[in-house]
Amino acid sequence: MSYEDDDYFGGKQEEWEDPQVEKAKEALMKELFNKFPEGVFYGRQIQVLFENRFFHWITSAALKELVDEGVINAHKEFLLGQVSVMLYWSRGNRYWRRKANRKIDIIKEFSAPGFGRQLGNQAEMLFDASLPRFGFIPKGQDVKEYGDIKWEETGHDLDRVFERDGVSYGTEIKNKLTYIDKDELEIKLGICKRLKLRPLFIMRMAPRTYIHLINEAGGFALIFKYQLYPFGAEELVKRVREEMSLEGMGFPVDSPKAIEAGTIERFLKWHLKTYVLQ
């Protein structure tokens, strides 16, 4: 198991021969490795910092090519058992180990057993509280059956069902730095279709290709950008931001008491326009 999810290279080859890979390589060299020659960075950090311009798999491919070309150095660090992260640094950085150790220490904190479940629970709790304030009423949790229809093809279910104005939404809530796995996305869309629910995917981030799939299925992708840490984790949030952010590029983690109204309002506006004000 790799915490870095470096299986992006397990897909179709054309996915990493995209012309964007060359642009990503140029950006990484100019804005990261040349600008911060004494820095040590880990793969997921780089993907997230550059995600407004490049899909995660494009950044992964660019890093792999830069390593293969001998332009930068890389090292796989094992955290626990087979869980690993990839570290990257400029070739001229001879004293990388100390900074790498500091990076690994904080990664171990937010990838500790159980913390991932806390992240998932936190996002579900916050959206469970926010959506009803805008008229989206909860109708089910861990749903694989709705009405008189069941999903039996796999062991998957939907996190929630919310309803407003006679429209029922099969809802998934993902509070991860990574994208939702594409196979899981397609399965969850299949569940929504079978159960006659409109898809609502609430995610920290997703590529446009995934958002298009959700839109094609008559659903909505609600992107909230910041990974939501549990209440009381403000000190960890501060240290993660300090360690993972760079000049002009903040690392998107936070520990808010509630979801901002504007986030839910984006979904409400789309819902009204699509299903009510026709």
Structure characterization notes:
The chain is 42% helix and 22% strand. The protein starts with 19 loop residues before the first helix and ends with a helix. The protein has a 5-stranded mixed sheet with strand order 4-7-8-9-10, sandwiched between helices. It has 9 helices and 12 strands. By secondary structure, the protein is an alpha/beta fold. The protein folds into 2 domains: 105 residues, Orthogonal Bundle (Arc Repressor Mutant, subunit A), CATH 1.10.10; 162 residues, Trna Endonuclease, Chain: A, domain 1. α1 crosses α3, α2 crosses α3 and α4 packs antiparallel against α8. β9, α7 and β10 form a beta-alpha-beta unit.
Layout of strands and helices, then pairs:
Elements: H1 20-33, E1 40-42, H2 43-49, H3 56-68, E2 72-80, E3 83-90, H4 97-110, H5 115-133, E4 137-143, E5 145-146, E6 149-150, E7 158-164, E8 167-174, H6 182-194, E9 198-203, H7 208-216, E10 220-223, E11 227-228, H8 234-244, E12 253-254, H9 261-276
Parallel strand pairs: 8-9, 9-10, 11-12
Antiparallel strand pairs: 1-3, 2-3, 4-7, 5-6, 7-8
Count of DSSP H/I helices? 9
**CATH second-level architecture of the largest domain:** 3-Layer(aba) Sandwich
Give the strand content.
15-25%
Which structural category do the helix and sheet elements fall into?
alpha/beta
Radius of gyration, Cα only, in angstroms?
Answer: 20 Å
Write down the oligomeric state.
single chain
Number of domains: 2
Report the count of strand segments.
12
Biggest sheet: strands side by side, in what order? 4-7-8-9-10
CATH class of the largest domain: Alpha Beta
